[in-house]
Amino acid sequence: MKSIEKLKNIEGKKVLLRLDLNVPLLKGEIVDTTRIDKVIPTLNFLVEKKAKVIIISHIGRPKGKIVKELSLKPITLSIKEKIKKDVFLLTKNIFELDPKEIFGNSNYNIALLENIRFYPEEESNDNEFSKKLASLGEIYVNDAFSCSHRDHASVSKITKFIPSYSGFQINTEVNALNKITSEIKKPVTCIIGGSKISSKIKVIKNLIPKFDNIIIVGAMANNIFKYKGLKIGKSIYEKNFDNIVKEIFSYAETNNCKIFFPIDVKVGKKLNDISTEKEFLEIDNDDIILDVGSKTLKKIKDIIDNSSTILWNGPLGYFENVNFSIGSSEIAKHIANKRDKIFSVAGGGDTVAVINSLNIKDEFGFVSTAGGAFLEYLEGKVLPGIKALN
Prior knowledge:
2 domains; Rossmann fold
């Protein structure tokens, strides 16, 4: 990818900047500004170079229709506050927008197009829409790694019509993921959780030949317990998955990768229950497994202590209930405390939420805000947005 750092003599030039500003909103107020914070370096770079910046982004899934509640107006105000520069929201229909109109005689140097997903042509990757978008600027910069697994007009096809570059954030994301998948410092360990093993089976299979340890936690570990003949009460699990679990263990053995799973757990009768630690033999038929037990925590910490690289995706339990958040919190803090000895990469919305709740984001080697793109990259897939920049 050609990096934004190679851009020279761009004073007065119009730069189309694709960002992922899909932040959580509550009654029109931004709840978490993490995604905005991460792209400020790229914005500041372009501002310092005296470029005229046209930001392209989205919020939510309006499915090609104008949805008032999904306007980017709150984002405009947040960016203005963070970079101390005027930013204005362009609400005019893109098909009717004349590039000369965007800045006109105003003193503004930063414009934000209204939610790009208000246009059905965005998600259909429409050729004419991509060409129209490209005509609004002279240079295109993609700094939205978390959107780069989408084959959308403003992410991939636009690069056919305009000189294109990668931003600082997308470079950082790709470099961090390359470091744990291609330039690995061994031993390397993956802690992977979530509700369904089917959603992450391709990730696990892709990482097994490269990693020394894979620790499967969260509800997806219930499939392993079931395969091993252990009691899981009324915990959720995926049916007809024994062959997949058997295949994982066989593939791991062939590639000298050790698969670990919880050896004790914490249960409740319902999601908002108190926590009770149990061995598998003690689990009742109406118990739900909602966190890892103390023996498991000790085992995971020991594995971390003997690792040089850590990848973490997915909480260890139902962290939304503080009674079942101990596993996730303890592991997050343990990895953070090893920051001088371990290169750590964490990704996925729930994992980032755990880290942010403890205010230890800066103690990790890299924390990715990407969800689908993060997992697809780990699966070994070629991301359309990345491919388009190569």
